[in-house]
């Protein structure tokens, strides 16, 4: 470990000592000296040995060791492998596998396989079965068809977790514990028991029927609730009132978070010296859950399955999982191949280095063995279907060799971003209503929330600037100099208070159109808009139009937008920074208002890179934000301890201007004036 890294580790130890339970980050955390931290990178795979013979397992492990793998993730999706019938636990084979991993020098993330539940559990405890909106009880036809709110499920998964963690708590191969693979990707259920549990949740939230009726706007359409038993579960796929739908989503989010907290309690009791590194899926479309306001209660590292598409969307989602944690990102499942039937050579290596730019610490290939059957039948792993090692195994061996070099040179990156993006589960739900008829459609939501978020993120990411994606109501904003609020349609009181304080204390905020229109109940404000922040931004806006192509001028730069939605801003104390030049009356396109010690900037259109980029560039100097290395489109870079890692995410060669002569740490070639990156190529340059 370099002297600089030792200093970083020491500083992190001091900072972490002030954090409460569940908030301790990994680097040098008190009482957890073996948690992965600075100077450690991990390459490995997800391994499911449930249908492998001992001979095959020994051969698999030998190939893993030969490839330089440091870690495997095991146990996920395999509850009945450990508990084939209720109360009957079988660990002997897994004991042997753990011993074999340890002998090979490979560490293990043991996943508590709470999803899916075994068929014996569904058979004996039918409350675990899902019920549709139409009242039909469903068999567990595919994974994740489990009602995790059922008391029998909760009791039995807690017992299973207790048995599993106690069994391996002291095993020398154990690195970490994972909870419920891809939790968030399940389904909502509509049984009578679910309805009663939902009513209990509503009673706890609202206290009385008067408050519930007000929150749900039941005075409309003759929907007043006169008795708690009149409450019914809203239909997730519509039709239905928006106020009820968002509470339904919140309820199921709380159920999911409650499950994770229960498992975390087991981990703390039985394996307190091993962190929680779980393959979570908070953004799953079926259900999802509110991760960014709760993660410190059950996660020590942001961890996820990383199956990237575009660099912008994939980078944003990875940073969503990191949140404000100081620990690195773990890719508990990682793309092994790419689009197409078998994969693209070099693609996994490129994305692995792309992850390092973001602050990732691990890549665990999904998956090691190709799947012969099951729901992912035909999925190609690092070994082909006949157990022959494919080129993919060789590529991951190359990644392992790369990481072995880089972990001595300042990786994983310990980021300290000065820019934060506001994201919330509630807002995501509020802007994604179910299908609606013409009487309930909302034409003013012209741009999906994540499209706005990605559009606002893109220019900063292309300028190679680190950002954090956080729930602003639950984090300390004083560490940031710029806060970006793209299309935060639902503005709860806590978020509004956080923005107000941030700006008042000297911060700069940029908020875009479609923001601050509804309150926490998903009802429009009855005040001038933006509803809770009109004074902070020094304006009101009540008119919404679609103007086609929008033209404006930011500084000396003529800008043509691609999204036509705009709001007519009426400044009070705000000053106009730019105007639309091709809209009647040339209304303001961007305003700035001095509030307290800071400034609040409002963009009158939905976030789009063409507008956000020039605006950011006008602000960098005053905010002390320095763009990273200059790169051509599709190439991303970060400088770490004087060396610069470049990643070409495109399928064509790229030439990057560099200053003077430099040497490639990975490729060994010297470059002067220009670095040539092959398609999907990566390189770390040093002087």
Automatic annotation (TrEMBL):
<feature type="signal peptide">
    <location>
        <begin position="1"/>
        <end position="26"/>
    </location>
</feature>
<protein>
    <recommendedName>
        <fullName>beta-galactosidase</fullName>
        <ecNumber>3.2.1.23</ecNumber>
    </recommendedName>
</protein>
<dbReference type="InterPro" id="IPR017853">
    <property type="entry name" value="GH"/>
</dbReference>
<feature type="domain" description="Glycoside hydrolase family 42 N-terminal">
    <location>
        <begin position="46"/>
        <end position="399"/>
    </location>
</feature>
<keyword id="KW-0862">Zinc</keyword>
<dbReference type="InterPro" id="IPR029062">
    <property type="entry name" value="Class_I_gatase-like"/>
</dbReference>
<dbReference type="InterPro" id="IPR013529">
    <property type="entry name" value="Glyco_hydro_42_N"/>
</dbReference>
<dbReference type="Pfam" id="PF08532">
    <property type="entry name" value="Glyco_hydro_42M"/>
</dbReference>
<comment type="similarity">
    <text>Belongs to the glycosyl hydrolase 42 family.</text>
</comment>
<dbReference type="GO" id="GO:0046872">
    <property type="term" value="F:metal ion binding"/>
</dbReference>
<feature type="domain" description="Beta-galactosidase trimerisation">
    <location>
        <begin position="419"/>
        <end position="625"/>
    </location>
</feature>
<keyword id="KW-0479">Metal-binding</keyword>
<dbReference type="GO" id="GO:0009341">
    <property type="term" value="C:beta-galactosidase complex"/>
</dbReference>
<keyword id="KW-0326">Glycosidase</keyword>
<dbReference type="Pfam" id="PF02449">
    <property type="entry name" value="Glyco_hydro_42"/>
</dbReference>
<dbReference type="InterPro" id="IPR013738">
    <property type="entry name" value="Beta_galactosidase_Trimer"/>
</dbReference>
<dbReference type="InterPro" id="IPR003476">
    <property type="entry name" value="Glyco_hydro_42"/>
</dbReference>
<keyword id="KW-0732">Signal</keyword>
<dbReference type="GO" id="GO:0005975">
    <property type="term" value="P:carbohydrate metabolic process"/>
</dbReference>
<keyword id="KW-0378">Hydrolase</keyword>
<dbReference type="GO" id="GO:0004565">
    <property type="term" value="F:beta-galactosidase activity"/>
</dbReference>
């Amino acid at each position: 470990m370099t002297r600089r890294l030792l200093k970083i580790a020491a500083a992190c130890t001091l900072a972490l000592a002030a954090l409460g339970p569940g908030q301790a980050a990994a680097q040098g955390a008190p009482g957890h000296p073996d948690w992965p931290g600075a100077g450690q990178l991990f390459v490995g795979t997800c391994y499911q040995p449930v249908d492998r013979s001992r001979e095959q397992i020994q051969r698999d492990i030998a190939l893993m060791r030969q490839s330089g793998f440091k870690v495997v993730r095991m146990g996920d999706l395999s509850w009945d492998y450990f508990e084939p019938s209720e109360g009957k636990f079988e660990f002997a084979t897994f004991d042997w596998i753990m011993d074999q991993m340890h002998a090979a020098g490979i560490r293990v993330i043991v996943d508590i396989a709470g999803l899916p539940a075994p068929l014996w559990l569904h058979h004996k405890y039918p409350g675990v079965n899902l019920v549709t909106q139409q009242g039909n009880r469903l068999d567990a036809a595919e994974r994740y068809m489990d009602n995790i709110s059922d008391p029998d499920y909760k009791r039995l998964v807690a017992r299973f977790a207790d048995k599993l963690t106690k069994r391996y708590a002291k095993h020398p191969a154990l690195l970490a514990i994972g909870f419920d693979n891809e939790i968030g990707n399940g389904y909502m259920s509509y049984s009578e028991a679910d309805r009663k549990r939902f009513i209990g949740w509503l009673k706890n939230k609202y206290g009385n029927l008067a408050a519930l009726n007000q929150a749900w706007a039941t005075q409309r359409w003759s929907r007043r609730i006169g008795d708690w038993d009149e409450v019914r579960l809203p239909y997730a796929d519509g039709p239905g009132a928006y106020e009820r739908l968002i509470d339904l989503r919140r309820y199921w989010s709380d159920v999911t978070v409650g499950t994770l907290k229960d498992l975390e309690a087991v981990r703390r009791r039985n394996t307190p010296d091993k962190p929680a590194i779980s393959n979570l899926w908070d953004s799953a479309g079926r259900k999802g859950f509110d991760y960014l306001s709760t993660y410190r209660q059950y996660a020590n590292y942001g961890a996820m399955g990383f199956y990237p598409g575009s660099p912008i969307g994939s980078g944003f989602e990875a940073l969503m999982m990191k949140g404000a944690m100081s620990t690195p990102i773990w890719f508990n499942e990682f793309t092994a191949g790419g689009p197409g039937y078998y994969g693209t050579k070099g693609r996994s290596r490129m994305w692995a280095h792309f992850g390092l730019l973001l602050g990732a610490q691990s890549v665990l290939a999904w998956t090691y063995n190709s799947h012969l059957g099951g729901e992912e039948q035909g999925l190609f792993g690092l070994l082909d279907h006949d157990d022959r090692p494919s080129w993919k195994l060789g590529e991951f061996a190359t990644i392992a060799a790369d990481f072995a070099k880089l972990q001595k040179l300042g990786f994983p990156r310990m980021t300290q971003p000065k820019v934060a993006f506001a994201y919330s589960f509630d807002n995501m739900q509020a802007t994604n209503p179910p299908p609606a008829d013409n009487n309930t459609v909302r034409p003013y939501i012209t741009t999906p929330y994540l499209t706005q978020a990605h559009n606002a993120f893109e220019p900063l990411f292309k300028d190679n600037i680190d950002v954090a994606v956080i729930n602003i109501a639950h984090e300390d904003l004083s560490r940031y100099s710029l806060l970006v609020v793209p299309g935060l349609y639902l503005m709860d009181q806590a978020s509004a208070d956080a923005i107000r304080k941030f700006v008042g204390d000297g911060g700069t905020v940029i908020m875009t159109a479609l923001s601050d229109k509804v309150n926490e109940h998903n009802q429009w404000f009855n005040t001038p808009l933006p509803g809770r922040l009109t004074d902070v931004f020094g304006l009101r806006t009540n008119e919404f139009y679609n103007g086609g192509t929008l033209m404006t001028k930011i500084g000396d730069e003529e800008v043509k937008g691609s999204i036509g939605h705009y709001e007519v801003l009426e400044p009070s104390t705000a000053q106009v920074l730019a105007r639309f030049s091709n809209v009647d009356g040339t209304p303001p396109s961007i305003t700035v208002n001095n509030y307290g010690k800071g400034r609040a900037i409002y963009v009158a259109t939905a976030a789009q890179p063409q507008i956000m980029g020039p605006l950011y560039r006008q602000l960098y100097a005053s905010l002390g934000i320095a763009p990273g290395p200059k790169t051509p489109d599709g190439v991303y870079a970060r400088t770490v301890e004087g060396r610069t890692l470049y990643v070409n995410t495109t399928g064509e060669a790229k030439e990057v201007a560099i200053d003077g002569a430099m040497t490639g740490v990975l490729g060994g070639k010297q470059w002067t004036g220009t670095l040539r990156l092959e398609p999907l190529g990566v390189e770390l340059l040093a002087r």
